[in-house]
Amino acid sequence: MERVKIVVTGGAGFIGSHAVVELYEAGYQPIIIDDFSNSKESVLRGIQDILGVEIPSHNIDCGDESALREVFSKEKDIQGIIHFAAFKAVGESLQKPLAYYQNNVGSLMTLLKVMPDFGIENFVFSSSCTVYGIPDQLPVTEQTPTKPATSPYGNTKKMCEDILTDVAKATTSLHTILLRYFNPIGAHPSAKIGELPLGVPQNLVPFITQTAAGMREKLTIYGDTYDTPDGTNIRDYIYVVDLAKAHVVAVQRLLDRKGEAVETFNVGTGRGNSVLEVVHAFEKATGVKLNYTIGPPRTGDVPAIYADVTKATNELGFKTTSSLEEALASAWKWQQTLANSQ
């Protein structure tokens, strides 16, 4: 039986690469589009090592309309797109807002412009819990009001959601699922793909693993005076493989035409962990003591946010299966693999 073709933009990135693996293992034919501006081509080898096959890959910017048309013409009969390709660092977006708007919003608009010409109707959008801003109540549901973003990055996610909703209202040909992620962590159990931050990590877990590996002198925890039980930020940390599986379920739902033209789902674990809890869970999972210090709070950081996942459980049939410690152990295994390959 011929595999259904699904384009994965940003397919060499952290979440994208794991989604490619899960799609292929579920019987789909993923096609990677990535310009490698925030990823490495070595990831393609990791994917191939896991799957035993080479996944088609196109080194283009999905904001480049002519290049996109060329790929869609060449690949033929694409049934859907999962759109990961975006810049994603909150701090960097405060310094380079124009780059974030141009890349994140511009690439979406180019995709939406080109898709109808190739009969592509199904679209899974990589959104974020940042659209909820600083929520009034926890946990957040899909009905929790979105708020003014605390960063240009968050604002691009909100704008992209609005664009997709407006386009879906204006046409009968677009069917889209907005997946609002919480905090993806960990690596594939094979340790052949994982998070590959270029330069200084912007996310907590790679900073933890690099500190544990001796690459960083210490981990700085940004603020311990938040209104949380231990004073540090609370987030909902989801194992990246679980998150990747949610995309497979979303794609199938679109193909089966089971939902409305636009649907939104929170994808998290449904529980929050503080930064200090993550540090201690890492130490417990790996037996490695971390050198950490408390620094000042970061601009744009939300004190606490975690998901209500009832809708994803009931309507998508999706639940996470891995614990925080299991996810952190996989991240450490990946870090050791990276160190051994240097």
From TrEMBL:
Span of domain NAD(P)-binding: 8-328
Q: Which reaction does it catalyse?
A: UDP-alpha-D-glucose = UDP-alpha-D-galactose
What's the cofactor? NAD(+)
* MF term (GO), any: UDP-glucose 4-epimerase activity
List the Pfam families hit by this protein, alphabetically. GDP_Man_Dehyd
Superkingdom of this entry's organism? Bacteria
Signal found in the keyword field: no
Write the signal peptide boundaries. Answer: none
Matches recorded under SUPFAM superfamilies: NAD(P)-binding Rossmann-fold domains
Where are the membrane-spanning stretches? none
Pathway connected to this protein: Carbohydrate metabolism; galactose metabolism
Q: What's the Enzyme Commission number for this chain?
A: 5.1.3.2
A GO cellular component term found in this entry reads: cytosol
Q: What are the UniProt keywords, alphabetically?
A: Carbohydrate metabolism, Isomerase, NAD
Write out the GO biological process terms.
galactose metabolic process
Which InterPro entries is this protein grouped with? NAD(P)-bd_dom, NAD(P)-bd_dom_sf, UDP_G4E
Q: Which Gene3D superfamilies match?
A: NAD(P)-binding Rossmann-like Domain, UDP-galactose 4-epimerase, domain 1
Q: What class of enzyme is it?
A: isomerase
- How the protein assembles, per its UniProt entry? Homodimer.
Concerning its family, UniProt says: Belongs to the NAD(P)-dependent epimerase/dehydratase family.
NCBIfam families according to UniProt: galE
Q: What is this protein called?
A: UDP-glucose 4-epimerase
Q: Which organism is it from?
A: Hymenobacter crusticola
